[in-house]
Amino acid sequence: MPARPPLNRSLDGFGTTIFAEMSALALATGAINLGQGFPDTDGPESVREAAVRALRDGRGNQYPPGMGVPELRTAVAKHQRRFYGLDPDPDTQVLVTAGATEAIAAAMLALLEPGDEVIAFEPFYDSYAACIAMAGGVRVPLTLRAPDFRPDLDALRAAVTPRTRLLLLNSPHNPTGTVLTPAELSAIAELAVERDLLVVTDEVYEHLAFDGTHIPLASLPGMHDRTVSISSAGKTFSFTGWKVGWVKPFSPAYWTLAA
Amino acid sequence: MSGRPLLNRRLDGLGTTIFAEMSALALATGAINLGQGFPDTDGPEAIREAAVRALRDGRGNQYPPGMGVPELRTAIADHQRRFYGLSFDPDTEVLVTAGATEAIAAAMLALLEPGDEVIAFEPFYDSYAASIAMAGGVRVPLTLRAPDFRPDLDALRAAVTPRTRLLLLNSPHNPTGMVLTGDELTAIAELAVERDLLVVTDEVYEHLVFDGGAHTPLISLPGMRDRTVSISSAGKTFSFTGWKVGWVTASAPLVAAVRTSKQFLTYVASGPFQYAIAEALRLPDDYFTAFRDDLQAKRDLLADGLTTAGFEVYRPQGTYFITTDIAALGEKDALAFCRSLPERCGVVAVPNSVFYDHPDAGRTQVRFASCKQHAVLAEASSRLQRLES
To answer: Do A134 and B109 make contact, defined as CB atoms within 8 angstroms?
Structure first.
């Protein structure tokens, strides 16, 4: 074994997630596991059977196109029109990824230069910190505080520096359940335009906004060309193991990052 | 739109791969696509039905464990014992990934510090350069030269500096088909031990070594067990490239390091397919032998066709690619040749020059994929005969 530690310094401390530890504890004790966020019931049988048909018809058994199969890209575009009135071009503005996790990692690795600052709500999903670190970026947390976990927009404004490259936002928000209001979205959009920032939005719980609706930040004035909107099928259709996510980027620049 | 360029400088120039361009050309012209390396026939029906059963039984429809499902990790460990006599603990020394591509990216992102040097054979698979760049590493190419593409071991030794962190090796080698010999593996292992280097080995063509040869994992050599990250995948061996099931076998500390970055790249992938590949890895020897013999026959069919058409053919020892030289046809530039080939005779290939840091070394080399049906290869061969006339 070489003398130097195997893991690089930027990933130091990211070794084992709390989910692994708690799931092991659930298994060892027989406790009910409300730790990890995946359903204990699979999604619709008709969707499962659509996967069976694709397998048996030989659709997707070999490498699909790097952008994703046209059928899915078109369906993602139609979903955006149906629910949000958005109109992405399925050929150039939709990219299929291995879940939202890969989309976030690819976005950070593509868009950040070492030393760039990224503002993200805290508490945050653990992959955010690791992805920013792998890209050599600097994480700047904006703390959401109990009891209502609203973002402090003055603090957000004050957190932007000349080194700020992008905002990494998540709404509906894991773990607090905060859903950004139209007024908050407007303020964030105005700030992004004023300070010329990119925004990456993690919208995987888009169909789980209660007592209200989800509004994609990309639909606000000035945001279409500076927002990378990310979502996935896992949460909405209860097939988290299939790992199908997508991006509505403004540019084809990082297609090839879809590993 | 932000004023700064969107893509960071490390990834500049890696925007669109040659495969995308050539596949689009194939689609536009209706040419036979021997550019991209995936089979035109799916793998065994029994394995496909294993995936159907997993889907219907609700196995893998939700997040599998981060390391991969236990059934697959055990099957991978058993495969390493059966074919190579290697022993890995399925709980700590085997990691399932979203194909070998993710494994390579995760290894680079985990093991490299910015400025670390990585020595890799060129021509190389294009994801190597991108993965090293994303990790802030520095690529140091070791050029494999025609006609036999053996690595120059003196040059390799000379390429190692105090900044060298790891060797990224690929055998059987895409695109040249070179398979490292026992002597070469021994020399590489001795060098790695002497200079205290890690080695990452891409072994996805492990079951495609022809002419009675065999693949030997570098990790099986003395001193290598604790410094090698061995990577392979199911896509090539079982002809289900779309399922994206790959794996890492290595010592527990190295697996832990690679898992750290891997869990944030895709977290997990390919839920139901993990169960199907667990069954595939247990197929009887007949499957592996018949698969290899079939691909060897296809290599021979296409290699003969290319020779008759006037190409200089570097007959590969393994993989399902054939590298050729077009100088014998009076051609000077592989990229221009490949762009004109669909119109000239209805076949698509890719220029090896894009796999080099020193494009001159591969200026007249062109790669053809031989993993297609016999009839398709025969038709492609027949079309290529038009070139000389």
So the answer is: yes
Q: What is the DSSP letter of B169?
A: E
- Tell me, yes or no, whether B54 and B139 share the same domain: yes
ipTM of the complex in this document: 0.92
Residue burial A102-118, b: 16+ Cβ < 10 Å; e: rest: bbbbbbbbbbbeeebbb
User: How many CB atoms are closer than 10 A to CB B106?
Assistant: 30
The alpha carbon of residue A233 is apart from the nearest alpha carbon of chain B, in Å, by: 12
Give the residue numbers spanning the domain of B17.
Answer: 9-43+286-387
Domain A65-257 fold: Aspartate Aminotransferase; domain 2 (3.40.640)
Residues on chain B touching A65 (C-beta within 8 angstroms): 23
Return the domain boundaries, chain A. 65-257
Last residue within a domain, chosen from B280, B312, B336: B280
Chain A residues close to B251, C-beta within 8 Å: 1
Rg value, chain B, Cα: 21
Q: Which residues from B are below 8 Å from A51, CB to CB?
A: 55, 272
As a whole number of angstroms, the distance between CA B15 and CA A257 comes to 9
Would you give per-residue pLDDT tens digits along chain A (259 residues)? 778 889 998 888 888 778 778 888 888 999 998 988 889 999 999 999 999 999 999 999 999 988 999 999 999 999 999 999 999 999 999 999 999 999 999 999 999 999 999 999 999 988 999 999 999 999 999 999 999 999 999 999 999 999 999 999 999 999 999 999 999 999 999 999 999 999 999 999 999 999 889 999 999 999 999 999 999 999 999 999 999 999 875 543 333 333 3
Shared-domain flag, residues B81 and B214: yes
Nearest to B60 among A65, A238, A241 (CB): A241
Here the CATH number for the domain that contains residue B175 is: 3.40.640.10
pTM of the model: 0.94
